[in-house]
């Protein structure tokens, strides 16, 4: 066959393009598959959800959301995807690593130490347990109500007699007394509301007084109980001593009775 009919090597060679390996995200995964960037994204996603749950345990749905956030970063960098199980195992490993770094002397050079310390460290636990201070109760508005004087001008000039003028003066004095009583009542109400408006401090003072009374009663009951127990102990000791002496005397009498027949029998033989 002629050379121009022979197929060239380039025409007969089939180009083989290597396919990109497919990563399977199943299983627990290997720890060496986690890069520093992936671990950082995992801590961010897990930490946000951890704080939303008041530092509680994440459920499976939460772990899937965390894995979704991590995979968004993995896809953008062309890295293998992670499952929720892999994310959970990685967080457990990071926690163990944090505990090891925590007990070391000196500052830690581990890049994730400070972030995990804020999330799971002792300072984070203390801040989570710190109760929030209750807001102070607003003071109630106080309204003063004064009775209008029915006789605004009791001394007006006119043809009224002295007796009617005196009568009006007595009525005015009665009205003034009633107004003063109303003002006193309002003042007491204001003081009462003011004491209640003191809010936390007033309640705290009353609680301390009640606690003192209860503590005093408990201490008094304890003292009485101790006195009663001491009295019973002394009576028991006295009764025990009496029984011991009684048994000792009876034993002596029995010994004497046992000795007397011997003496009498020996005397008869002589």
Note down, in words, how this protein is organized.
With 270 residues, the chain is mainly alpha-helical. The chain contains eight helices and no strands. The protein has helices at 9-12, 36-52, 60-76, 84-102, 113-120, 122-129, 162-197, 200-269. Helix 3 (60-76) packs across helix 4, helix 4 (84-102) packs across helix 5 (113-120) and helix 5 (113-120) runs parallel beside helix 6.
Radius of gyration of CA atoms, rounded to a whole number: 49 Å
Tally of helical runs: 8
Shape: elongated
% residues in beta strands: under 5%
* Helicity, as a percent range: 55-70%
Count of β-strands:
0
Main sheet properties? none
The arrangement of helices and strands along the chain is: HHHHHHHH
Average pLDDT, all residues = 73
pLDDT < 50 stretches: 1-5, 7-29, 154-163
What class do helices, strands and sheet pairing give? mainly alpha
* N- and C-termini, Cα separation: 167 Å
Nutshell version of this structure?
The chain is 66% helix and 0% strand. It is mainly alpha-helical and 270 residues long.
Set out the fold topology.
Elements lengths: L8 H4 L23 H17 L7 H17 L7 H19 L10 H8 L1 H8 L32 H36 L2 H70 L1
Helix pairs in contact: 2-3, 3-4, 4-5, 5-6
Defining traits:
single chain, 270 residues, mainly alpha, 8 helices, 0% strand, elongated, disordered N terminus, ASIL1/2-like, transcription
């Amino acid at each position: 066959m002629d050379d121009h009919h022979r197929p060239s090597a380039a025409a007969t060679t089939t180009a083989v393009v290597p396919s990109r390996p497919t990563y399977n995200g199943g299983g627990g995964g290997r720890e060496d598959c986690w890069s520093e960037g992936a671990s950082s994204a995992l801590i961010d996603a897990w930490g946000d959800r951890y704080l939303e749950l008041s530092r509680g345990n994440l459920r499976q749905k939460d772990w899937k959301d965390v894995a979704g956030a991590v995979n968004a970063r993995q896809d953008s960098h062309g890295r293998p995807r992670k499952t929720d199980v892999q994310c959970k195992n990685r967080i457990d490993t990071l926690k163990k690593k944090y505990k090891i770094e925590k007990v070391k002397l000196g500052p830690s050079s581990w890049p994730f130490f400070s972030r995990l310390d804020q999330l799971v460290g002792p300072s984070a636990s203390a801040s989570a347990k710190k109760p929030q201070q209750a807001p102070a109760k607003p003071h109630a508005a106080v309204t003063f109500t004064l009775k209008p004087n029915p006789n605004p001008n009791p001394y007006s000039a006119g043809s009224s007699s002295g007796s009617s003028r005196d009568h009006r003066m007595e009525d005015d004095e009665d009205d003034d007394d009633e107004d003063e009583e109303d003002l006193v009542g309002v003042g007491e109400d204001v003081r009462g509301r003011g004491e209640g408006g003191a809010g936390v401090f007033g309640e705290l003072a009353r609680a301390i007084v009640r606690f003192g009374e209860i503590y005093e009663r408990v201490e008094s009951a304890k003292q009485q109980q101790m006195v009663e127990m001491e009295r019973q102990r002394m009576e028991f000791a006295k009764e025990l001593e009496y029984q011991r002496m009684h048994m000792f005397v009876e034993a002596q009498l029995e010994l004497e009775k046992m000795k007397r027949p011997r003496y009498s029998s020996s005397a008869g033989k002589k």
